[in-house]
């Protein structure tokens, strides 16, 4: 009699634990229907505006600055004199632009290979963005890019990937934009969205439903584990390339609480 009672208690405990696990899992799972639509796969980064023409005055010997013809902020034309040295050498502007840096004054001693003066063309600009390796693998010349400045969120600029190359362990992309306004200056930053792929009118799977290449399909009140292959993804939805799924199906997703 005692053994039967003990066995009943053990059975009851196992039953309660099983029911608890079942209802816990049920409470922490949900179903989400698939949908048909468009998906855009993109790479994101922070870009910095650069000038496509920069000229810096440097010298090879120690000498005095005899004459400064410009100051910071001066606009100059190609051929204008910008600085002269006691050695008799005079530097002229190689292109139209703006003086953006003067680090010495007249009469001061200038030292070799130290930038003395900088001239930049502020009209022709591009954006430079550093990419993670996984992102850089997807970026190629000619892809379109959207550029959004924090203080100009109501306006979106469109550009194109001009080039991508390695530099000191980083992967750099240059984004060319034709219509950057005058008030956007070198050194300013913007959010960059590079479109690497697009698929229209396709079945989409919620990314959170995919685990190690599988989803749990819910069809006709039955669950089944289905292998899937996905293509383009925007991080929330993914293009279905291969897998026994219909637009009318639902998939199981975990609900974090």
Walkthrough of the structure:
The protein is mostly beta strands and 257 residues long. Among the domains are: 42-51 and 123-199, Efflux pump adaptor protein, beta barrel domain (Elongation Factor Tu (Ef-tu), domain 3, Beta Barrel); 54-120, RNA polymerase II/Efflux pump adaptor protein, barrel-sandwich hybrid domain (OB fold (Dihydrolipoamide Acetyltransferase, E2P), Beta Barrel), CATH 2.40.50.100. The chain has two helices and 20 strands. The longest helix is centred in the first third of the chain and has 26 residues, at 2-27.
- What is the CATH C-level name of the domain at 42-51 and 123-199? Mainly Beta
Tally of helical runs: 2
Shape: rod-shaped
E-strand count: 20
Q: Can you tell me the residue ranges where pLDDT is under 50 for at least 5 consecutive residues? A: 15-27
Portion in helices: 10-25%
Order of helices and strands: HEEEEEEEEEEEHEEEEEEEEE
By secondary-structure content and strand pairing, the structural class works out as mainly beta
What is the rounded Rg?
Answer: 31 Å
| CATH level-two architecture of the domain at 42-51 and 123-199 | Beta Barrel
Q: How far apart lie the N and C ends?
A: 45 Å
| Strand order, largest beta sheet | 2-11-14-13-12-15
Average pLDDT figure: 85
CATH topology of the domain at 42-51 and 123-199: Elongation Factor Tu (Ef-tu), domain 3
Within CATH, the superfamily of the domain at 42-51 and 123-199 carries the name Efflux pump adaptor protein, beta barrel domain
Characterize the largest beta sheet: strand count, sense, and whether it forms a barrel: 6 strands, antiparallel, barrel
In percent, how much strand structure appears in the residues?
Answer: over 45%
């Amino acid at each position: 009699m005692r053994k039967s009672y003990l066995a009943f208690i053990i059975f009851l405990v196992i039953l309660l634990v099983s029911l608890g696990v079942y209802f816990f899992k049920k409470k922490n799972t949900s179903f989400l229907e698939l949908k048909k639509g468009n998906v855009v796969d993109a790479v994101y980064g922070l870009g910095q505006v650069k000038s496509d023409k920069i000229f810096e005055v440097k010298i090879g010997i120690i000498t005095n600055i005899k004459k400064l013809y410009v100051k910071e902020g001066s606009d100059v034309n190609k051929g204008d004199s910008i600085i002269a040295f006691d050695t008799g050498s005079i530097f002229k502007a190689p292109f139209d632009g703006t003086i953006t840096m003067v680090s010495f004054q007249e009469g001061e001693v200038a030292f070799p290979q130290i930038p003395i003066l900088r001239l930049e063309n502020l009209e022709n600009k591009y954006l430079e963005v550093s990419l993670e390796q996984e992102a850089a693998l997807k970026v190629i010349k000619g892809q379109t890019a959207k550029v959004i400045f924090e203080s100009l969120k109501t306006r979106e600029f469109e550009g194109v990937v001009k080039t991508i190359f390695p530099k000191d362990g980083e992967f750099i992309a240059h984004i060319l934009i034709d219509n950057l306004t005058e008030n956007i200056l070198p050194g300013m930053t913007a959010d960059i969205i590079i479109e690497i792929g697009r698929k229209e009118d396709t079945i989409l799977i919620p990314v959170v439903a995919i685990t190690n290449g599988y989803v749990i399909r819910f069809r006709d009140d039955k669950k089944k584990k289905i292998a899937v292959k996905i293509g383009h993804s925007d991080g929330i939805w993914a293009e279905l390339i291969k897998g026994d799924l219909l637009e009318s199906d639902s998939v199981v997703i975990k609900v974090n609480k």
